[in-house]
């Protein structure tokens, strides 16, 4: 930390269901003092309907700062209520999940990666989230969904969300999501990585901030993918 501020999120530990819980994040902080940590994705409805048990879902130890709450959902009222309830916990950023391909999330839940097909709603959701918190907001997404995976379609998503909401930071999992036929684990390794999409976004949206995600497993790979902006 510098002069009471956190270092910019040059490196973060990605949100992972059933992994990045309170205990894992404590271990991650012992390994890295400055990495930004993410919660598991927490559905807005979980927060809204578990008001008597919020510490279980939202609690964390002070040394975990800087820490980002990742939230998912497709109901604007519940998103607003969930963010209001989370404010007391002092997260450093709120991230909206538009990348999870799980059938429970993108299928029956109609959120996660499926939301990439509805950038207008994502912009509305991000405006609602931003209106109910004082911390920065961001979106985590894939580069596409099913056969909607061209670079132009990704640009359309980024443009509509950023121009119609306060969103200025996008975390790009640089592979598409397949909503049928693959497990969540296979969706993290079978669709090919297309880092070129990420670097093209840096070129084409110079006023936005992008973070690369997907397939980066070693310190050398982190260094190779760091892009510095002045």
Provide the fold topology.
Elements: E1 12-13, H1 22-31, E2 36-38, E3 42-43, H2 44-48, H3 54-58, E4 67-72, H4 76-86, E5 93-98, H5 103-108, H6 119-131, E6 137-141, H7 151-163, E7 169-173, H8 184-187, H9 195-204, E8 209-213, H10 219-225
Parallel strand pairs: 1-2, 2-4, 3-4, 4-5, 5-6, 6-7, 7-8
Helix pairs in contact: 4-6, 6-7
How would you portray this structure in words?
By secondary structure, the protein is of the alpha/beta class. The chain has one domain: Alpha-Beta Barrel (TIM Barrel), CATH 3.20.20. It contains ten helices and eight strands. Strands 1, 2, 3, 4, 5, 6, 7 and 8 form an eight-stranded parallel sheet that branches. Helix 7 links the parallel strand 6 (137-141) and strand 7. The protein is globular. The model has no long low-confidence stretch (mean pLDDT 91).
What's the short version?
The protein has 230 residues and is α/β, with parallel strands linked by helices.
User: What is the CATH class?
Assistant: Alpha Beta
Structural class: alpha/beta
What gross morphology would you assign? globular
Mean pLDDT: 91
Overall tally of structural domains:
1
CATH topology: TIM Barrel
**Sequence stretches where pLDDT stays below 50 over 5 or more residues:** none
Q: What is the terminal-to-terminal distance?
A: 20 Å
- CATH architectural category: Alpha-Beta Barrel
What string gives the helices and strands in order?
Answer: EHEEHHEHEHHEHEHHEH
CATH homologous superfamily identity: Aldolase class I
Strand content: 5-15%
Rg result: 17 Å
């Amino acid at each position: 930390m510098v002069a009471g501020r956190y270092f910019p999120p040059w490196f973060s530990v990605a949100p992972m269901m059933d992994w990045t819980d309170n205990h894992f994040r404590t271990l991650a902080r012992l390994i890295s003092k400055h990495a930004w940590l993410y919660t598991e994705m927490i559905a807005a409805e979980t927060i809204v309907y578990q008001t008597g048990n919020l510490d279980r879902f939202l609690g964390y130890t002070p040394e975990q700062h800087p820490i980002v709450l990742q939230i998912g959902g497709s109901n604007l009222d519940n998103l607003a209520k969930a963010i209001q309830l989370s404010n007391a916990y002092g997260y450093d950023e709120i991230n909206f999940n538009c990348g999870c391909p799980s059938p429970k999330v993108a299928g029956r839940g109609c959120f996660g990666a499926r939301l990439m097909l509805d950038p207008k709603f994502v912009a509305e959701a991000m405006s609602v989230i931003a209106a109910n918190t004082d911390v920065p907001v961001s979106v985590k997404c894939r580069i596409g969904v099913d056969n909607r995976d061209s670079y132009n379609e990704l640009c359309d998503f980024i443009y509509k969300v950023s121009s119609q909401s306060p969103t200025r930071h996008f975390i790009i999992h640089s592979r598409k999501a397949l909503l049928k036929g693959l497990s969540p684990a296979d969706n993290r390794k079978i669709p090919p990585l297309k880092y070129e999409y990420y670097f093209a976004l840096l070129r084409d949206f110079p006023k936005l901030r992008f973070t690369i995600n997907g397939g980066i497993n070693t310190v050398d790979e982190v260094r190779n993918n760091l892009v510095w902006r002045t």
